[in-house]
Amino acid sequence: MSISIAGYSFHGLVQSGAMNVFGYLESCRYRYHLDTADLWCGLLGSDPAAYLQPAFVDRVAVAIRERGLTLVNYHADGCHVWEDDPATRAKHLELAEQHIAAAEQLGARTIRIDTGGRDRHWTAEQFDAIAAQFRRWAKRAHDRGYRIGPETHWGADNYSDNQVRLAKAVDSPAYGVLLHMGKPNEMTPDEFDRALAPYAMHTHIDQKTTETRLASAIQILLDAGYHGAFGVEHHSAKNEYAEVSCQLAAVRRTLAQLRDVAFGSGKLANPLLGF
Fold first, then answer.
1. Which uninterrupted H or E stretch holds 98?
2. CA atoms within 13 A of residue 271's CA, in its CB half-sphere
3. Is it the case that residue 104 has pLDDT exceeding 70?
4. What's the mean pLDDT in 173-197?
5. CA angle 221-224-228, nearest 5°?
6. 46, 144, 232, 257 from 20: Cα distances, Å
7. Which of 54, 260, 220 is closest to 268 using CA atoms?
């Protein structure tokens, strides 16, 4: 089974200067005994002009390899596709392309870039522009062996009907959704996850999901044939090492329980359960 820790889980430590990308990688490997990394761009630094330089990215790539880690996701902020101002859109596109190049250099299996659009629905102009851009990126991702797509993160991205519509418009096996699970909007958490699980390329499992519905959330993914990582994400910015440890243990425990149930029932279908 593949479990990861989303880098944003340590944003409090990052803001206080107590963690950077190298400390994060060390923690994943030796504190939490994982073989995955799940990089948030904020771990790399505060200035993209500096941390997206190929020489620095190569240092990070070496650190990932030295620890025997697989980069299951790279999530980039501040470069979403749509902004109303054309000049801002152009700047975002330039930055997004730099993030994609960095993620490719790091060997990321999935890349998250948000769509933009702050209202409940995209306008026709917004949707057409967003879909066209993700088609271009999905073609690049397909040619280079990874997947790319937005997260259920903010604005129009947070609604499953929007995400399904966009996925169908892009229509590429290299396109996917980073499913931040159980978003509280117009559906129940289970309904939300069930609608998007078929499109999920990666996941963020937050503390509320962990504490209230973890087994059902994971089962929804397994039933949909999900083959990505189960990504733990913590948000409080307090006591992060311990809080992440608790969430991680809960995910490990739940996966083990589901594996035991599957063994007992003779259902040995999903390799994420260790079969």
1. helix 86-106
2. 4
3. yes
4. 94
5. 55
6. 11, 28, 18, 34
7. 260
CA distance 196 to 203: 11
- 242: helix, strand or coil: helix
Quick check: 264 pLDDT over 80?
no
Q: What is the pLDDT of residues 230-247, one digit of tens each?
A: 999 999 999 999 999 999
Count Cα atoms within 13 angstroms, Cβ side, for 158.
14
Phi, psi dihedrals of residue 12, rounded to the nearest 5°: -65, -45
In angstroms, the CA 190 to CA 90 distance is 37
User: Do residues 211 and 218 lie in contact, with contact meaning Cβ atoms separated by under 8 Å?
Assistant: no
Using CA atoms, how far apart are residues 162 and 154, in angstroms rounded to an integer? 12
Cα 42 to Cα 10, 36, 77, 201, 271, distances in angstroms? 10, 18, 8, 21, 32
Q: CB under 8 Å, gap of 24 or more: what pairs does 156-159 form?
A: 156/115, 156/116, 156/117, 156/118, 156/119, 156/120, 156/121, 156/122, 156/126, 157/114, 157/115, 157/117, 158/183, 158/185, 159/120, 159/121, 159/185, 159/186
How far are the Cα atoms of 1, 107, 204, 248, 257 from residue 27, in angstroms, in the given order?
19, 19, 18, 13, 26
Q: Give the separation between CA 96 and CA 180, rounded to whole angstroms.
A: 21
Cα distances (angstroms) measured from residue 16 to each of 12, 19, 237, 238: 6, 8, 10, 11
pLDDT digits (tens, 9 = 90+) for 92-102: 999 999 999 99
- The structure tokens listed for 242 are 């311990």
